[in-house]
Amino acid sequence: MRVLIIGASKGIGLETTRQALDAGHSVRALARSAAAIAISNPDLEKIRGDASKTEDVETALVGMDVVIQTLGVGLGELFRPVHLFSDATRVLIAAMRVHGVKRLICLTGFGAGNSRASISCAQRLPFQVVFGRVYGDKSLQEHLIQESATDWTIARPGVLTGGPRTGRYKILSDSSQWRNGIISRADVADFLVQQIEDRKYIRQAPVLVN
Ligand SMILES: NC(=O)c1ccc[n+]([C@@H]2O[C@H](COP(=O)([O-])OP(=O)(O)OC[C@H]3O[C@@H](n4cnc5c(N)ncnc54)[C@H](OP(=O)(O)O)[C@@H]3O)[C@@H](O)[C@H]2O)c1
Description:
Elements: E1 2-6, H1 11-22, E2 26-31, E3 44-48, H2 54-61, E4 66-69, H3 84-99, E5 103-107, H4 121-146, E6 151-157, E7 159-161, E8 170-172, E9 182-184, H5 185-194, E10 207-209
Parallel strand pairs: 1-2, 1-4, 2-3, 4-5, 5-6, 6-10, 7-9
Antiparallel strand pairs: 8-10
Helix pairs in contact: 1-5, 2-3, 3-4
Bound molecules: NADP nicotinamide-adenine-dinucleotide phosphate.
């Protein structure tokens, strides 16, 4: 498949790029610092661009079958108003409509959208204080996706680690099972790459934890 990864230069996006190439897909990697991606592979195209700019996203979407969006903001932005996730998602959904691309796999996090109700009482206040702005915008992002005509899957990992890919993580699709936990970025990437061809979780937003 021809896969556009938005937010591909670091963290889960970079790991997803690596694993998608290993799985035999062609990857177009979009990020503001895409040129710094230290992978060379004939099936990888690095595109410098801003996910919230229509022109950049439309150019990147040409010829793609699937989009994986793995955006993140830095620690310094946690205590400022956050609009990146919703802004970039509005731009992306409109551009996907224009280009006739249907499949969207998006990374948010446990605590976004209706998974917020599953945060434990002890974690609720600290979560709101530290991540409230980011997760408020991620919730809006999820809403935009869920209202869109795309074939979407939203992945909501728990707390991320830099551990290895194990393939041994839980995919909790039923809200009665939702809980926080840890998971490596490499295992989150494993899930995202599987969704490129697997249609089992379309229109679902599972929580991912060990
Ligand atoms: N930390 C946790 O425990 C935890 C738990 C659950 C969910 N999450 C979420 O998981 C996500 C990924 O986290 P991560 O640590 O793996 O990634 P990360 O290191 O934060 O990487 C974020 C990516 O987004 C890109 N990006 C940011 N703004 C962009 C823009 N305007 N245009 C294009 N690309 C842009 C960055 O590239 P450039 O800077 O090069 O543009 C980078 O490739 C985040 O949304 C985070 O909130 C985190």
